[in-house]
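Incident review: delayed structure delivery

Summary: a single-chain prediction request sat in the queue longer than the usual turnaround. Root cause was a stuck worker, restarted by the on-call engineer. No data loss occurred. The affected request and its eventual output are reproduced below so the record is complete for anyone auditing the incident later.

Affected input:
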Amino acid sequence: RRRRIILLAIVALIGYLIYLAVAAIGAMFTPKPFVATSRNCKPGVVSVTAFAGDGTDHLTVFDAKTNPLVWFSVVNTGKKACTFNVGPAVQFFTIKSGDQLIWTSKQCNRVGLTDQQMVLQPNKAKLSPPSEWLRVYSSGGGCGKGQAPALPGSYTLSVEVNKVMSSNYEQFEIQ
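Output delivered after worker restart:
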């Protein structure tokens, strides 16, 4: 009787070891799910470029009836994907004529604007949705309708996104 119990225990142990070996071999050949992880973009690896135009194409002259649309692109110039906040809460457009500040979105009503974390792949540009500039001055009272109209002339556009300034000053003219 003792021999049978010992023999049964040995057979059970051998069976358990075979089960573990088969499970380990199966795990080696089972594909692992891909989990994309990215870290915040390091300082200096994100490039921002400002654009003025019709929302699709870059334009340098706007007739008297056309309001310029402004937008930007962000590019991760690093070698690995990273996460960057591109939300409207951290976007600031500025339009100047020479050194004179004409309009800045910092003076717009910013209540309810949010952050938006985006994974930026290396060297792949992401475009923001275009926003309309109503050809007005901004002031402590706002930046939209009801503000003093901007005069015809030459202007420059720059944008700051999450503390990164655009690498360009987009030049355009309104008639």
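Verification: The mean pLDDT is 91.
Action items: add queue-age alerting; document worker restart procedure.
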